């Protein structure tokens, strides 16, 4: 990557310094597309009917490997999930495979797919529906995270939780809180009661389940009986089936609160369900072996799959095509946890950038191996087909 290293650093900084939310990644989209145009790589902006997606491709015939680039940010705290590093590592991996294909003249195609709206917007779900993965033999990406309790450089073979989000909107009846409170129906009471019910439900859920709840709206004045309250709920479980069951149980908490307070309740879905992650064993092994060869250590214990508490729409992709979604550690200080302002700072460091380039080498290695090694490609598909969804 030496010939484009400085440009990649600048692109990484541009994405980090201009955080953009779901489906509004206009600057990131333009900067990445311009980068590819400058290097005379075929790129389609606004791909698959999405304003901030793109598709770059190099090569002819053969198999197809797709590197997934994420570049959306979080409200208020920017790139606290390090998506600038995800985009950078995937771009670097693309150029690595491109160089190998150009040098060897072997058949095969490498793609970089712009994947907007991972932070709750389900961008990859829309891309699946639009056919972005129809002819793909493997989808590959990596995600930065803080270092865990071990000394390894990251995790190759891992999974995550399925997830969804929705809102409960309670409607009551406003009234003068001092003169005629008995004439009102307090929607905030329903919100508070549902919050308590969900807290009690947590006692009776699986260790892999998560219920994260906030009261988003709860009135504007103490002098008015609240006629509208909104509770936002995030639900996570080990599998999509368990997720849908838990989401249904949570909905009963809202129904009960509405009944008890004489309010009505309506629901607003915030995102399509994210699947758990099916890590392809063959890809994970190959990645860990390559990284070991360059002095890096990535956990790949096929007898014990690490399950992170995060969720990603890459999980949906992993049910569609063979997929690799590893995690790599970047240097962090105390308190710089992922989804915090501290991690935003960590994600812009030169050390984090260098680690993203290191893992890009491993991503490129397994991507090119898939394109040129028939036996390995068969192993990847066998692994995918034998991994029966839980």
TrEMBL record:
SUPFAM superfamilies: Bacterial exopeptidase dimerisation domain, Zn-dependent exopeptidases. Residues 165-255 form the Peptidase M20 dimerisation domain. It comes from the Eukaryota. Gene3D superfamilies: 3.30.70.360, Zn peptidases. One of its GO terms (molecular function) is dipeptidase activity. InterPro entries: Amidohydrolase, Bact_exopeptidase_dim_dom, Peptidase_M20, Peptidase_M20/M20A_hydrolases, Peptidase_M20_dimer, Xaa-Arg_dipeptidase. Belongs to the peptidase M20A family. PANTHER family: PEPTIDASE M20, XAA-ARG DIPEPTIDASE. This is Peptidase M20 domain-containing protein 2. The lineage of its organism: Eukaryota, Fungi, Dikarya, Ascomycota, Pezizomycotina.
């Amino acid at each position: 990557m030496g010939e484009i290293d400085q440009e990649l650093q600048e692109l990484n900084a541009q994405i980090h310094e201009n955080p953009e939310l779901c489906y509004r990644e206009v600057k990131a989209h333009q900067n990445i597309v311009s980068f590819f145009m400058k290097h005379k790589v075929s790129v389609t902006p606004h791909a698959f009917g999405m304003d901030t997606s793109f598709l770059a491709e190099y090569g002819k015939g053969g198999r197809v490997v797709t590197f997934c680039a994420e570049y959306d940010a979080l409200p208020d705290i920017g790139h606290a999930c390090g998506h600038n590093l995800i985009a950078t590592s995937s771009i670097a991996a693309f150029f690595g495979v491109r160089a190998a294909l150009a040098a060897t003249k072997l058949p095969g195609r490498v793609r970089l797919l712009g994947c907007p709206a991972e932070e709750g917007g389900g961008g990859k779900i829309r891309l699946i529906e639009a056919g972005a993965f129809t002819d793909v033999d493997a989808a590959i990406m990596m995600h930065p995270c803080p270092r865990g309790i071990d000394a390894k450089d990251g995790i190759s073979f891992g999974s995550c939780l399925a997830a969804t989000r929705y809102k409960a909107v309670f409607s009551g009846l406003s009234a003068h809180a001092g003169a005629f409170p008995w004439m009102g129906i307090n929607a905030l009471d329903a919100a508070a009661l549902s919050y308590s019910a969900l807290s009690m439900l947590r006692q009776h859920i699986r260790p892999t389940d998560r219920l994260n709840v906030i009261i988003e709206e709860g009135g504007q004045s103490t002098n008015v009986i609240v006629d509208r309250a909104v509770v936002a709920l995030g639900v996570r479980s080990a599998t999509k089936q368990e997720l849908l069951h838990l989401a249904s149980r949570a909905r009963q908490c809202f129904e009960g609160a509405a009944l008890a307070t004489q309010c009505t309740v309506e629901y607003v879905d915030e995102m399509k369900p994210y699947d758990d992650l099916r890590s392809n064993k063959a890809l994970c092994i190959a990645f860990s072996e390559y990284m070991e060869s360059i002095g890096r250590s990535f956990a790949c214990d096929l007898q014990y799959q690490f399950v992170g508490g995060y969720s990603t729409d890459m999980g949906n992709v992993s049910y569609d095509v063979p997929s690799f979604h590893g995690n790599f550690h970047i240097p962090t200080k105390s308190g710089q946890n992922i989804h915090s302002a501290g991690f935003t700072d960590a994600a812009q460091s030169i050390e984090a950038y260098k680690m993203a380039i290191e893992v890009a080498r491993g991503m490129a290695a397994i991507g090119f191996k898939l394109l040129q090694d028939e036996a390995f490609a068969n192993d990847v598909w066998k692994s995918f087909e034998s991994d029966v969804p839980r």
